[in-house]
């Protein structure tokens, strides 16, 4: 099986298992704060994906949100040394755990493969709609086998933009503040609950753009490749080319990118620490 086939198989298997657990009694556990929670299903999903990948590629490296047990600092170190790692799989076993816990559609499985620091593969699966998005470096982006591409909309006022809220207060505050400007420029703002899904929707032209502060690499790595392969653009909120260590990102169809950056320039993370 190719890397792509392995990633698609892992994402579908895990996604179907997650879907079968919706609306069942779930034990939730707090992580860093009351806003930051995990269920046994997140962990089970990560274990399923890890075994599927490592069975095929036992010598590959694996970084997952729930069970890698690496500190934030050591994750930064892994990302800094990514150019020396032949194959690093980066996995979010459920992106949108809050949706999953509350039975709201829009949670996804996100699997990315980084080789020598370069994103080479991204797979995002939405089990509620049975939509499997994937991209391979240099080969375009697809949904359920059909090519996808970014929106051709020229003006912010004609496009829908999405964002989300991580659990950290500082990042929530700046996101709420930035809505004031974004809300005046774009047709409307959506908050669907999964950063990976937002990126898949920028790639498939449903959304003109997406921005969010305080994300982690597993939330966005797969989606960043999807957006780029679909013809879009991904930067940090300062407008610099995306790097794996970036937490604050803007993804768009290119045309509306300057408007997003301009709106965000009114707010500085520095001012909130
Ligand atoms: P999660 O469901 O995997 O935690 C919502 O806009 C996005 O923010 C989701 O991708 C969600 O991923 C992520 N998110 C929520 N809390 C987070 C946290 N404490 N740190 C990083 N990302 C978080
Ligand atoms: Ca989480
Ligand atoms: Ca996530
Ligand atoms: Ca998650």
Automatic annotation (TrEMBL):
It holds the Pfam family Inositol_P. Its cofactor is Mg(2+). SUPFAM superfamilies: Carbohydrate phosphatase. PANTHER family: INOSITOL MONOPHOSPHATASE (PTHR20854), INOSITOL-1-MONOPHOSPHATASE-RELATED (PTHR20854:SF4). PROSITE patterns: IMP_1, IMP_2. Keywords: Hydrolase, Magnesium, Metal-binding. Its EC number is 3.1.3.25. It is an enzyme of class 3 (hydrolase). This is Inositol-1-monophosphatase. It catalyses: a myo-inositol phosphate + H2O = myo-inositol + phosphate. Belongs to the inositol monophosphatase superfamily. One of its GO terms (molecular function) is inositol monophosphate phosphatase activity.
């Amino acid at each position: 099986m190719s890397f792509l086939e392995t990633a698609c198989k892992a994402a579908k298997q895990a996604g179907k298992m997650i879907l079968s657990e919706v609306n069942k009694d779930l034990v939730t556990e707090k992580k860093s704060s009351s806003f930051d929670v995990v269920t046994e299903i997140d962990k089970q999903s990560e274990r399923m994906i890890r075994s599927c990948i490592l069975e095929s590629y036992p010598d590959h490296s694996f970084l997952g949100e729930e069970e890698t047990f690496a500190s934030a600092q050591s994750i930064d170190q892994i990302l800094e040394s990514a150019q020396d790692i032949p194959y690093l799989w980066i996995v979010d076993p459920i992106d949108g755990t809050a949706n999953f816990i509350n039975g709201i559609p829009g949670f996804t499985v996100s699997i990315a493969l980084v080789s020598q620091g370069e994103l080479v593969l991204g797979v995002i699966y939405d089990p509620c709609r049975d939509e499997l998005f994937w991209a391979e470096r240099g080969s375009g982006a697809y949904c359920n086998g059909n090519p996808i591409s970014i929106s051709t909309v020229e003006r912010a006022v004609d496009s829908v933009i999405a964002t989300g809220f991580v659990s950290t207060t500082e990042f929530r505050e700046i996101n709420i503040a930035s809505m004031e400007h974004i809300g005046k420029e774009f047709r409307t703002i959506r908050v669907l609950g999964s950063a990976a899904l937002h990126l898949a929707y920028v790639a498939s032209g449903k959304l003109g753009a997406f921005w969010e502060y305080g994300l982690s690499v597993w939330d966005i790595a797969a989606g960043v490749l999807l957006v780029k392969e679909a013809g879009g653009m991904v930067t940090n909120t300062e407008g610099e080319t995306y790097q794996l260590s970036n937490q604050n990102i803007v993804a768009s169809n290119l045309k509306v990118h300057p408007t997003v950056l301009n709106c965000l320039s009114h707010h500085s993370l520095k001012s909130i620490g």
